[in-house]
């Protein structure tokens, strides 16, 4: 189920997606708010709402996946909400800078994966 998070004026400020296709489990497959709401408690409220909706369906486990492409505070936030890491993996995919999708100087803090374009 996909839920839009609206402010009091009806403007969409976030989104939540719960995937209950796996018997007894619910994956929080999307969880996000606009950046302007960060650090104000809205994320805690949304996570409580997500978990309440999931538990109401009688699941035994709620889980989510996060990665370094998510907000830098995501892992700490999820841990603060009671989630625990159960697996750690290294995943790679084509670097969008190598394909020209993004300029080569984008995200210099992230190692470049691929051949650098010739200048």
Key features of this structure:
18% helix; Aminopeptidase; 119 residues; alpha+beta; 2 helices; four-stranded mixed beta sheet; globular
What topology emerges from the helices and strands here?
Layout: E1 2-6, E2 12-19, E3 25-33, H1 42-56, E4 61-64, H2 74-80
Parallel strand pairs: 3-4
Antiparallel strand pairs: 1-2, 2-3
Task: Write a compact overview of the structure shown.
The chain has 119 residues and is of the alpha+beta class.
Number of helices: 2
Predict the CATH topology of the largest domain. Aminopeptidase
Alpha-carbon Rg, integer: 18 Å
- Round the mean pLDDT to the nearest integer and report it: 91
The separation of the N and C termini measures: 47 Å
What does this molecule look like?
It contains two helices and four strands. It has 119 residues and is α+β, with helices and mostly antiparallel strands. The protein has two domains: 79 residues, Aminopeptidase (3-Layer(aba) Sandwich); 30 residues, no CATH class. The mean pLDDT is 91.
């Amino acid at each position: 189920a996909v839920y839009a998070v609206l402010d009091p004026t009806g403007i969409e400020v976030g989104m939540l997606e719960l995937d209950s296709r796996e018997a007894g489990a619910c994956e929080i497959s999307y969880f996000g708010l606009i950046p302007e709401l960060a650090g104000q408690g809205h994320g805690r409220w949304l996570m409580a709402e997500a978990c309440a909706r999931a538990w109401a369906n009688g699941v035994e486990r709620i889980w989510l996946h996060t990665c370094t492409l998510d907000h830098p505070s995501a892992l700490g936030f999820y841990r603060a909400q009671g989630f625990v890491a159960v697996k750690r993996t290294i995943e790679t995919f084509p670097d969008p800078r190598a394909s020209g999708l993004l300029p080569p100087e984008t995200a210099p803090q992230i190692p470049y994966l691929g051949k650098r374009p010739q200048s």
